[in-house]
Fold this protein.
Amino acid sequence: MVVLTKQELQFRQFEEFACISSGVHRLHPAAPLLVTLGYIITLTSYPPTAVINLLPFALFPLLLARFARIPLRPLVKSTLKVLPLLIFIGILHPFLDTEPIQIGTMTIHRGWLVFASLLIKGFLTILANFLLISILGIGGLQRAMKSLGLPPLFYQLFTMLYRYIMLLMEEIYRVLRAYELRSGRKPKLAPSEWGSLPGGILIRTYEQGLRIQHAMELRGYDPEYPYGKEQPIIVKDIFFTALWFAAFVLLRLESFHG
Amino acid sequence: MHMADALISPQVGAVMWTATVATGAYCIKKIQVDERQGPVALAGILGAFVFAAQMINFSIPGTGSSGHIGGGLLLSILLGPHLAFLTMASILLIQALFFADGGLLSYGCNVFNLAFYTCFIAYPFIYTPLAKKGRENKSAIILAAVLGLQMGAFSVVLETLFSGKTELPFSTFVLLMQPIHLAIGLVEGLITAAIIAFVEKSAPHLLGPSLELANQGKRPRRMQKLMAVFVAATLVTGGILSWFASTNPDGLEWSIERVTGTTELEGTSPVHKSLSAAQKTIAPWPDYSFKNRDESAANSVAAYAGTSISGIVGAFITFVVVLLIGLALKPKSETKV
């Protein structure tokens, strides 16, 4: 019996979105990566009290999701699940920063502006992050790392880790379910079992890892050896990147003058 | 302890990205030189174990809450610090992209806070000198886990402070962060110690080769002890003794005061003025203290904290600069095996 955990569902959701066929998905993977990075840098460069100036930036995830044919609803749902952490940090501001600020006829504490700005920035950057991985998937991300000149040792380690997460999560889930059924209580490990249960899985994992490592080396594996076909950077990749960068710069400059 | 993108400024993000990339490049070079080929598959699978093992809830007696496994130290013990750093960086990248636990811009900060201190300070300077077989190994792991996490938590406070994205006062933020991470570090240390003790008992051959691998090409232990003494002396001098530093002018300022009647000469040219304004904006700790809105709070806790931090961070920056100069000047033949 295979039972999916929440994390596995999240992984599968992004992998499924990455399989969609659209113009954005066919771009060179470095293009959406750089554009998303540019978007996050522009957003975070705004001062802590900026609120109104941030709103036009909501267009980026809306348009990109539309072009990439990715439904925005599940991504927004995943984003909202992460936001409580930012709310926890931000909610202190209205009480700590009570400097009055006049907005039209209203006077509010400066802390509320900081809180609102933090939430908007947090929501948009996390949404952009999820959108990026929905476009690239793990394969696209690896190709982007390769084209940006990252050492093969790093991106192969990263891909290897990703590939084994699912297997190990299923194994740990089975072990925890067995523990729960035998102990007749919730799967919380008592201190006497802190070493033996995870330690047992670790030993099995280590030995499995060594076997795989040796098997790969015997078949001539070398992390430095290049493989796969390089996707060339073409005009539409440059156009896509340049257009978004220009939009971000223009919006940022506009608020400098405004 | 993962920082979100919204909490940091692009400048801080860029600096921490640079530090992380430099450390990553150093690790890759070290793995290639020392071990020819890093056991990539093994590291990837152990990294996946650390990620998946977050599902396990470790019950903390008497509190009703639960703790989770911490990866940096466990991976350093099993794989050595260089490969552990890269594995932690991979785990953090997956957490950032798939679960928004951290972000793209704050990725450098998170790798530095959660992997650098554990793999390159707590592991070589706290765990390795203290680790011996038996009971002492356990206390070495707990101490290394606690101090590694404390350094990481403090780093989060500093990065947030420099970013200026939140208006939380330094002392409030420190008081929120350090005690909670002391408890988390203690639990993570106990869990790691229990797992390593079990592996040591049930499959000691797994720890043997990995420890040998980790110790390959390392400085002699006497040198490590000397380094530990210097680090401790720096922390005490920069962190505590700096409170008692004289506020009287130094020799040069005294001489200038005798001639002109003031310790600091004001430049009158536009170049002097613009450079002075730029320095005031850039300097994170003018006169070795925080930029206080309220000047009357000079003797407050924040003023003492500012002096301590400027002492410790200043010493750390000096150490990094000297280390980089040393690495640049090191003859190439010595680095190759």
Q: What stands out?
A: Chain A has nine helices and three strands. The mean pLDDT of chain A is 87. The beta strands of chain A are 100-103, 106-109, 188-189.
